[in-house]
C-alpha cells in the first residue's frame, strides 16, 4: 500500500494494517476496526483514499485514510490519521476539502516533499486535479497537471525527487515529470516509451535519466523489466527472479519502490526510552536497599 523511508505499509486481512521494515524485520500491527464501526464500512478496501507518509517535525509516520459511509442516505466522508509515534488514531473530518466528488479516485497516494498526493480520475472536472495532503499541517491543497492533453487513465508516480504522471496512448507510454514542485510550467514530457503496456517503476540507480519499467506481455513467462533512456531507446531487458508469471504480475493491485533503511519505528524509540528510565529507577532502589542493609 506504500513505502516511506524504508518502511512498508500493508493491508492485512480485515481489521488491521501492518507496517514493516524488511531489512530489520521490525513490524507493527495497526487495528482499524474502531474506524470501521464508526464509519459503517466493512473492510479497509472500502476506503476512498489512503496514503503513508512521514512528518519530519515530529519524527512520526502517518497513515491517512478517507472513508465514506456505506449507507447511501448518509454519504458522509471521514478523514482519519494514525500516528505511529503516539500509537493512536486521530479524526480530522473538518479538514476534508469541500465540495469534492470522490467517485473512483485513485486510491493509493504518493508521498513526496512532506505530503501525500492523489490524482482525480476525471482530469477535466477539476482545475487542479491533484489532491495534496500535508502530513505536518494536516491540511489539503491542489496541484495542476500539464496543459497538454492527458488521458483520464493517467497515474501518479514519484521519479527520483520529482512528482510524475504517466498514461498509455497509441501503443506508447508517456511520462510527464514536474521538475519544480507545485510549478505547473515545469511539467515536462520526459519519456515517450514505444511500449503501450508497461508501468514506470523508478529511475536507474535512483537518479540520472534512464528509466526502469515493468512490462506486460503474454509472450513473457516471467515478470520482465526494461530500461529506456530519455530518447525512448531500449537499453536493456531483464527478468525478475520471482516465480510469478505474467498472468499474476498483470493483476498486481499496487507496487512501490523500497529503499533499505535501518531506521526504527518512533514507537520503538519511545519504548526504549521508557525501559532506560525504568532501569535507572530500579537500580537506584536496589542500591538504596543495599546501603540500608549494610548500615
TrEMBL record:
**What are the TM regions of this chain, as residue ranges?**
none
Q: For the F-box associated beta-propeller type domain, which residue ranges apply?
A: 3-195
Specify the protein name.
F-box associated beta-propeller type 1 domain-containing protein
Amino acid at each position: 500500500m506504500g513505502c516511506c523511508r524504508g518502511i512498508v505499509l500493508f493491508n492485512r486481512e480485515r481489521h488491521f494494517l501492518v507496517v514493516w521494515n524488511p531489512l530489520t524485520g521490525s513490524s507493527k500491527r495497526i487495528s482499524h476496526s474502531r474506524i470501521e464501526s464508526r464509519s459503517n464500512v466493512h473492510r479497509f478496501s472500502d476506503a476512498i483514499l489512503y496514503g503513508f507518509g512521514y512528518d519530519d517535525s515530529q519524527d512520526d509516520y502517518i497513515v491517512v485514510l478517507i472513508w465514506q459511509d456505506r449507507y447511501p442516505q448518509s454519504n458522509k466522508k471521514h478523514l482519519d490519521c494514525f500516528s505511529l509515534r503516539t500509537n493512536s488514531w486521530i479524526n480530522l473530518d473538518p479538514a476534508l476539502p469541500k465540495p469534492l466528488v470522490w467517485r473512483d479516485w485513485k486510491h493509493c497516494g504518493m508521498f513526496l516533499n512532506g505530503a501525500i498526493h492523489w490524482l482525480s480520475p476525471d482530469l477535466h472536472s477539476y482545475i487542479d486535479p491533484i489532491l495534496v495532503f500535508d502530513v505536518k499541517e494536516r491540511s489539503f491543497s491542489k496541484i495542476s497537471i500539464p496543459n497538454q492533453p492527458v488521458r483520464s487513465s493517467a497515474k501518479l508516480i514519484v521519479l527520483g525527487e520529482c512528482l510524475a504522471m504517466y498514461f498509455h496512448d497509441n501503443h506508447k507510454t508517456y511520462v510527464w515529470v514536474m521538475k519544480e514542485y507545485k510549478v505547473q510550467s515545469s511539467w515536462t514530457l520526459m519519456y515517450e516509451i514505444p511500449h503501450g503496456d508497461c508501468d514506470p517503476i523508478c529511475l536507474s540507480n535512483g537518479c540520472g535519466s534512464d528509466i526502469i519499467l515493468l512490462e506486460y506481455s503474454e509472450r513473457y513467462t516471467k515478470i520482465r523489466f526494461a530500461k529506456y533512456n530519455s530518447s525512448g531507446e531500449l537499453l536493456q531487458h531483464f527478468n525478475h527472479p520471482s516465480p510469478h508469471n505474467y498472468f499474476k504480475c498483470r493483476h498486481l493491485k499496487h507496487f512501490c519502490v523500497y529503499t533499505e533503511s535501518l531506521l526504527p519505528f518512533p514507537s520503538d524509540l519511545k519504548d526504549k526510552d521508557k525501559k532506560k528510565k525504568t532501569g535507572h529507577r530500579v537500580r537506584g532502589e536496589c542500591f538504596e536497599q543495599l546501603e540500608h542493609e549494610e548500615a
